């Protein structure tokens, strides 16, 4: 499952505002590791994780960006080519079948990834991290919390439909969806990690985030139609009513795992 560069650019401001203190904790941790610091970013898209973390981490930094979308990786290379003290390699890979890495890195990062992955993938990653004692910073993992203001009587049904869709079949298999944040904590602790967890929600407000809010609501309605095709009229009425939405809250969690 991949996303367009347009969508990733649209969400970048909300992602930046949602960053938790674990970014700083991770940066301090990397000060104790060798240089150049070697980091693998899983599901890297256009390189947003690198752009966010680079200013917080002492150079030199060697990043390998891993994604199933070769076009997004090309955009990432262009986005990062002028950063001083940063060396970037890209790896076009299908993480459902390809090895996680050929050589263990010093750290692993990922953003907005684990709600799309399966428990089997998470188990495989956790075991690999524990085997080599590699720290993981996982940011912006969806945790099932959704709220739109002002409230609407059909919100509950729409939230249930969205979360059901998120638990559906994705490229990794049956996705963790809204259960991903809790699964990350439990799975990492089960392999001996110490796990810090912090809130990193989106709080979108109109008119600042109007484009992102409309895209989110459109996508929400589309997924609900897949889950509840017999309630298409109610879904369309809900979407029309939501044109006056003043705010959207989307719950995320950040995780920092160390060994």
Mean pLDDT: 95
Give the total of beta strands: 10
Individual helix count? 9
Order of helices and strands: HHEHEHEEHEHEEHEEHHE
Low-confidence stretches: none
State the end-to-end CA separation.
Answer: 30 Å
- Gyration radius from CA atoms, angstroms: 19 Å
Strand content: 25-35%
What's the assembly state of these chains? single chain
Largest sheet: 8 strands, mixed
How much helicity do the residues have?
Answer: 40-55%
Task: Give a description of the structure.
With 259 residues, the chain is of the alpha/beta class. It contains nine helices and ten strands. Strands 1, 2, 3, 4, 5, 8, 9 and 10 form an eight-stranded mixed sheet that branches. A two-stranded antiparallel ribbon has the order 6-7. α5 (119-132) runs parallel beside α7 (180-190), α6 (155-166) crosses α8 and α8 (210-227) runs antiparallel to α9 (232-241). The longest helix is centred in the last third of the chain and has 18 residues, at 210-227. It is globular and about 55 Å long. It starts with a helix and ends with a strand. The model has no long low-confidence stretch (mean pLDDT 95).
């Amino acid at each position: 499952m991949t996303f367009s560069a347009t969508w990733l650019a649209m969400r970048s401001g909300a992602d930046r505002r949602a960053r938790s203190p674990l970014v700083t904790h991770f940066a301090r941790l990397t000060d104790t590791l060798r240089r150049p610091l070697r980091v693998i970013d899983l599901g890297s898209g256009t390189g947003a994780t690198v752009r966010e973390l680079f200013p917080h981490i002492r150079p030199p930094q060697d990043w390998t960006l891993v994604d199933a979308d070769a076009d997004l990786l090309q955009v990432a290379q262009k986005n990062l080519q002028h950063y001083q003290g940063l060396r970037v390699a890209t790896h076009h890979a299908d993480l459902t079948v390809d090895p996680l890495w050929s050589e263990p890195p010093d750290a692993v990062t990922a953003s907005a990834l684990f709600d799309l992955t399966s428990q089997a993938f998470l188990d495989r990653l956790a075991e690999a991290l524990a085997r080599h004692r590699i720290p993981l910073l996982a940011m912006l993992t969806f945790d099932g919390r959704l709220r739109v203001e002002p409230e609407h009587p059909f919100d509950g049904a729409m939230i249930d439909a969205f979360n059901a869709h998120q638990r559906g079949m994705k490229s990794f298999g049956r996705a963790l969806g809204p259960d991903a944040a809790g699964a990350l904590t439990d799975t990492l602790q089960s392999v001996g990690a110490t796990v810090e967890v912090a809130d990193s929600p989106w709080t979108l407000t109109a008119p600042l985030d109007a484009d992102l809010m409309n895209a989110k609501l459109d996508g929400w309605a589309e997924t609900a139609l897949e889950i509840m095709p017999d309630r298409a009229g109610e879904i369309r009425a809900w979407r029309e009513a939501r044109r006056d939405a003043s705010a959207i809250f989307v719950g995320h969690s950040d995780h920092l795992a160390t060994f």
